[in-house]
Structures are given as C-alpha cells and as structure tokens.
C-alpha cells in the first residue's frame, strides 16, 4: 500500500515522516462496543496520515486553514524578503541589547551590571544572526553592508534598502523597549525624560560620549572598534582560513561583540553600528526626549553613523591585504584562469611556452 503526502515548505524540516494511514470506523455490530471507534489499516475510506494533509475518499487533500493563510501571506520578491529579514534581525538585536540597558539603568544596578549589557548585546547579535542569516545574510549593520558592497559580495543597488530596514528594525525595537519599561523609566527619572544628568534615560536607547571624551577621540574610538569587529566577522566567514561548523558562526560573532564591549565600551558605549544608534535616537527624539538627543555631547549624533562606516572599511582593507588575498587559489579559480589564458593565445605562440596551469601545492 502506498501513501502520497505533499510536504509544505512552511513545515519544519525535521517534521517526522507521516505514519501509515488508518481508517476510522464505527463498530456498529457489537452491543458491547457500539458507538466506539477503532484504528485499523485500510485501503479505502476516510484516512488520516500523521500530521500532514488529510486524505479523503476521493483522493483529494485538505490543507489546514492556517497553512492556507500563511501561503497567501508569502512574499515572492527576494529583495522584500531580505529587507524583512534584516529588519527583524536588527529588531532582535536591539530588543535584547537596549532591554538589558533599561533593566540595569532603571534598577540602579540592582538587577544587572555593565557585564549584563555586554551579554545582552552579544546574545542579541547571536540570535539576530540566527533569525536572518538564511534569508539576507544577516548583515544587521549598515557598515557591514557597505563593506560587503565594496568587496563586491553584495549589490550596491540593495544597499539603501538594507540600510533603511536596518534602521527601521532598530527604531521599532527601541519603541518596544520604551513601551515595556515606560513605568520604570518614569519612576527612575522622576517623570522627566532627560538626556544628561544623574537620572538621564536617553542613554538607554542610543550612545553618548563620556564627559572626558572629545568628538575626535570618539571618532577614533568608533573607527577602531568597528575595524576590530569587521576583522573578526571576515575571519569567521573566510572558509579558506578556518572552516567552522555552520551553527557556530553566529555564536562567535556574538562573542566578538562581547569582547569589544568588555574592552572598548567605556568611552562611548561601543555603538559600532549606525542603525543601532540612529534608529533608537530617532525614537527618543519623537517620544519626548526632544532635540537634545542630537545636541548632547557637542553634537555627538553623527559620530556613531560616520565613524563605524570608516572603521568597517578600514578593518575590511586590513583583513583583505594581510590575510585573504594571500590564500592559494582554489582549484576552480585556477581552472578558470587556465581557460582564459588558453583562449587568449594567438597564432604567434612562442615555441616551448605553455600556460602555467599546474595544480596548487600545499606547504
């Protein structure tokens, strides 16, 4: 007996195979079992196959209503799907990161310390990457997207869309944290939404420099921190350098953010990400903190936007020039270069000269 079941892409990949179909039949001829049902194998009748679509007597399949609804919601445009994934990935990052800052701040370090904030952002990055990497590549950062475009690994045409949705995700996450901690923020600040001072709360959402830090000192801080981040990210993604298990990469990206926060966070809060800072800053401007969010720190707001982009390009250049360009060519690359050399030969070849198409050697 054969069983025909169509699996939907909306089902989990590890959904168990459907069990053999059984017929549900009433036992009508037994006075002791009248009205009860038994499960028995059948070649006909109404059958139910595991958790998959229902098979009816005429062979038609009944798709669950929720699955039909989800199919109607499916977006086929690839760019839209990628942008949605970036938006949700950044949302997860900021939800956990700024949520950790809100808890530590409003409880006055009674329910968390600075390390709690580091862990919040690190794990936020980790789960944000898990959420979006299969769809968009999990950039989660305009500076990373810019670097990928410069390397030729991401289309320039998609860059503005990625950036917009990354900022949107950060804005929505900041709004969620503001809603969740609304009462706590009001209690902590005495009902005043301030940007500076002993009960300032704008720093829950975006970064501000320490009192001793100059603007140009902050620029250097963000350039160095973001360059370090890109060095780590590119190394983790470089299969020719060190091949890692697929599921381990997001964890190590989060670990890179953690160590940067531990070692480089005191100057200005290690934004490292224009979307991470500007989206929440825009939320605080709208939500009641006012224009001071753009004036504080000597007009600090542009530093976490510009400096991370410069730092990302610097880190990318350093890694490419010192590590990646020196990898031996892969066999496929060598074959392509040999074909190009062969096709470029003319009828006036030099005697005894052949293209150098040897296999790469190790050592």
| SS-derived structural category | mainly alpha
Count of beta strands: 5
Q: Estimate the helix proportion, in percent.
A: 40-55%
Rg (CA only): 29 Å
CATH level 4 superfamily of the largest domain? Glycerol uptake facilitator protein
Mean pLDDT: 82
Largest beta-sheet characterization:
3 strands, antiparallel
CATH A-level architecture of the largest domain: Up-down Bundle
**Widest β-sheet, arrangement of strands:** 2-1-3
The rounded distance between the terminal residues' Cα atoms is: 58 Å
- If helices are DSSP runs of H or I spanning 4 or more residues, what is the number of helices? 12
The CATH topology of the largest domain is what? Glycerol uptake facilitator protein
Question: What would you call the shape?
Answer: globular
Spans where pLDDT lies below 50 across 5 or more residues: 1-51, 346-351
SSE series: EEEEEHHHHHHHHHHHH
Membrane topology: Multi-pass membrane protein
Organism: Scophthalmus maximus
Catalytic activity: glycerol(in) = glycerol(out); urea(in) = urea(out); H2O(in) = H2O(out)
Main location: membrane
């Amino acid at each position: 007996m054969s069983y025909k079941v169509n699996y939907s892409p909306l089902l989990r990949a590890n959904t168990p195979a459907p069990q053999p179909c059984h017929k549900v039949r009433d036992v009508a001829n037994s006075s002791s079992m009248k009205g009860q049902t038994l499960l028995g194998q059948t070649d006909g009748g109404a059958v139910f196959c595991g958790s998959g679509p229902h098979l009816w007597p005429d062979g038609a399949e009944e798709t669950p209503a929720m699955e039909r609804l989800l199919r109607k919601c499916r977006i086929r445009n690839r760019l839209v799907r990628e942008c949605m994934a970036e938006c949700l990935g950044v949302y997860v990052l900021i939800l956990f990161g700024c949520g950790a800052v809100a808890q530590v701040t409003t409880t006055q370090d009674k329910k968390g310390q600075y390390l709690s904030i580091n862990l919040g952002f690190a794990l936020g990055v980790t789960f944000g990457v898990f959420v979006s990497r299969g769809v968009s590549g999990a950039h989660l950062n305009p500076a990373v997207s810019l670097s990928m475009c410069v390397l030729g690994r991401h289309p320039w045409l998609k860059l503005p869309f990625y950036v917009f949705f990354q900022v949107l995700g950060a804005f929505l996450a900041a709004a969620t944290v503001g809603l969740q901690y609304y009462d706590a923020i009001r209690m902590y600040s005495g009902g005043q939404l301030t940007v500076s001072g002993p009960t300032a709360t704008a720093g829950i959402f975006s970064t501000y420099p320490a009192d001793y830090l100059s603007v140009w000192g902050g620029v250097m801080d963000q350039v160095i921190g973001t360059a370090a981040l890109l060095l780590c990210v590119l190394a983790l993604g470089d299969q020719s350098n060190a091949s890692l298990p697929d599921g381990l990469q997001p964890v190590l990206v989060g670990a890179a953010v953690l160590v940067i926060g531990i070692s480089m966070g005191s100057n200005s809060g290690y934004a490292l990400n224009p979307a991470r800072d500007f989206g929440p800053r825009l939320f605080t401007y709208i939500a009641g903190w006012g224009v001071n969010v753009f004036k504080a720190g000597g007009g600090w707001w542009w530093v976490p936007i510009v400096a991370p982009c410069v730092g990302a390009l610097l880190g990318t250049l350093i890694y490419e020039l010192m590590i990646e360009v020196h990898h031996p060519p892969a066999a496929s690359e060598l074959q392509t270069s040999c074909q190009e050399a062969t096709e470029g030969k003319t009828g006036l070849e030099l005697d005894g000269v052949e293209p150098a198409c040897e296999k790469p050697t190790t050592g």
